[in-house]
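Lay summary. Proteins are chains of building blocks that fold into shapes, and those shapes determine what they do. In this project we predict the shape from the chain. Here is one chain we studied, written as its sequence of building blocks.
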Amino acid sequence: MSNPNNSNDLLNLIASNPPKIIGGYKKSGWAVKVLDKISNDPVEVEQDGNITAKAVLLAADETYYPSFLTLDMRHNGKVIGAYLIAESKDEFQLIPFEMAKEYMEKDESKLVPFRYRTIEKVDGDIYQKNWPDFS
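And here is the predicted shape, written in a compact code that computers can read:
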């Protein structure tokens, strides 16, 4: 999976080749299948103590998107980053949600507020009250 080194690299990449955001599925299982193709562990602890977790987003219009979330564990699992997935050639790219929504063929009101569930339960996350249900 490709993740450009800085925001300028990402902006240049997006400007020259607009991303095709994966998702908008009517069933969550399709989003899970995309995440299964990505070799990252379902939950990864970063050096700063935050957690990056594979997750499925449930948009306001009841469609599903595979994603990665960054959870701030100093604040009990508060979401501090959401990344949607774009496919480019033979690899996946993570696109920050704020950038990705500009390239989606949906009005923002159909996307947010979104709910989510991580693929695996994250210990210490108080925001997912009834995991594996969407919170």
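What the prediction tells us: Helices lie at 7-16, 28-36, 97-100.
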